[in-house]
Amino acid sequence: MDLRDASHSLSEWRELIDRAEVGEVDEPIVNVDRDDLREYDAIFVGGGAGGRFGSAYLQALGGRQLVVDKWPFLGGSCPHQACVPHHLFSEAARELDLARWMSGKLWFPYFKDERASILEMVELFRAGRNSAHAFMNWQSKEQLGMEYILNAPARVIDEHTVEVAGERFTARNLVLATGARTRWPDIPGIDLPGVYDFASLVEDIAYEPNRCVIIGGSKVAIEYGSFFQAAGCPTTILSRSPLMRTASLHHVDEDIRCFVVEGMRTRGMTILEGAEPLEVVGDAWATGVTVRLADGRVETLEADFVFVGTGEQANSEPFVETLGVEVDDRGSIVVNRRMQTSIPGVYAIGDLIGAPMEMFKARKCGMTAARNVMGQPYEFDFSEYPDFLHSTYEITWVGLSEAEARERYGNVIVIQMPPKGVDFDELPLPCAEGSMLYAFTRPELTGFQKCVIDGESRRVVGAHHVGFGAKDAFQYLDYLIRRPQGLTIDEMGEMNELFLNPEHFIQLCRLRAGQGALVSL
Ligand code: COM
Predict the structure, then answer these.
(1) Could you report the per-residue pLDDT of 423-465, keeping only the tens digit for each?
(2) Does residue 512 have its Cβ closer than 6 Å to ligand 1?
(3) Please, which residues bridge with residue 126 across strands?
(4) For residue 471, with 0-12 CB atoms within 10 Å meaning exposed, 13-18 middle and 19 or more buried, which class applies?
(5) 3-class DSSP state of 321
């Protein structure tokens, strides 16, 4: 289907994607400028966030790109199976949590013991997701001028050649961007029906889960588990490491971790740390998980729904096979800071190059590859970054934890809320949008925050928050504290807060900013 000269509206795009998804459109969707005789500067193999942003940047620099994706849309797993459904489910978890705590109070109807349907939420997402896909196809073609072929996988032939639906395309460079998939644990029964990951949950589930066991302790495990529990489906997490202490999360402050994990337990979740899942049991359907517990006992936990949250692995195999590209011991493609692989002219970006498997990294990797392809030497170091996850709360952090700061600096100042030693039950702080109802009913549930300062340089070296609505601030805090000059407590005290703001860092810093020898607060 050649769409080069067509201009589809958003609703036409949506209809086309709907039809492609049910197999009514099985041909490639082609938007290639056959009149442009220039060689492609790069072919992006995979049109997720990295491939799409890289393509857009390369276009913006005046280059010629082609992006190819097996799905009938650009944007990749984010709007289809990953970030967008996760945020929808996490928002539902937050609403459900409030409804349970407020059950029968004020205008809230009785809800404490009610079920909410997980299936209904998945169906809501499935029914709505193609709008985002339609927008990305439309924007990429009509606004960003990108060339693409969708609904057809790309087969890499060599470092300059890609075959799509029987046609070969050549380019000066290839940018590999085919993402990652769940790293399924190698235990008996893992293939049984009734075992899902984040992708098959949104694609396949057709029944209402009533008892869930989660294998793994990743972000996905915490986020989806909190939703299942909030929906009223009793959920158990089996994690080898303590939650939020997995290798993929850095700089997690212990006080924040405790607030989050204890909060999950308060809401009825069973969290078994140090647990080793041995087998998914069941004949025709998963009926439970056998696990070796931290104390060595072996037990079988009943479930009608087993969810795998053990992390992800790169889809690198085809490129190792055809190009011999170097990978690390986890199978992620090895790149330098310019996103160049071991094969000249071949770049790799996004989840394909390993952790962190986050949106900012995918998009900026795409931009980095595009700039280097176009002769602008540019390096991207993603070893430090702000991070977040959801339980029924939004949890956000940047920079060093208090413990890390104490290892590095001799005079660490901590400004936190509630202050150290103050009983949570007595203090409805921090609070702002999203936590005012908790503040006046269940003060201990409002949240937790901590700002870590090097008392000598007076610079903020870490910030940590559990609550609602602070994520935006952390994007800017990340930038400010990582500038060569950093951000001091005094500069924080000069900022203009929009009171009540979810993280109270500005006003709290102002309370101490005048102090010569800083004291914690
Ligand atoms: C975001 C997908 S959902 S993309 O980064 O805009 O391509």
Answers:
(1) 878 888 889 999 999 999 999 999 999 999 999 999 999 999 9
(2) no
(3) none
(4) middle
(5) helix
Give this prediction's pTM.
Answer: 0.97
233's tokens:
């489906």
CA atoms within 13 A on the CB side of 486: 12
From the DSSP assignment, how many helices (H) and strands (E) are in the chain? 15, 23
Q: Summarize the confidence of residues 27-41 as an average pLDDT.
A: 98
Write the pLDDT tens digit of every residue in 264-296.
999 999 999 999 999 999 999 999 999 999 999
Contact of 303 with 213, CB cutoff 8 Å: yes
Q: Is the CB of 79 under 6 A from ligand 1?
A: yes
Mean pLDDT within 10-31: 97
Beta carbon of 243 within 6 Å of any ligand 1 atom: no
Annotated catalytic residue, options 66, 78, 233, 509: 78
> How would you classify the pairing of strands 195-196 and 305-308?
parallel
DSSP string for residues in 224-287: HHHHHHHTT--EEEEESSPTT-STT--S--HHHHHHHHHHHHHTT-EEEET-EEEEEE-SSS--
Q: Which two tokens stand for residue 145?
A: 């001028």
Bridging pattern class, strands 305-308 and 212-215? parallel
Contact predicate 281/298, CB 8 Å: no
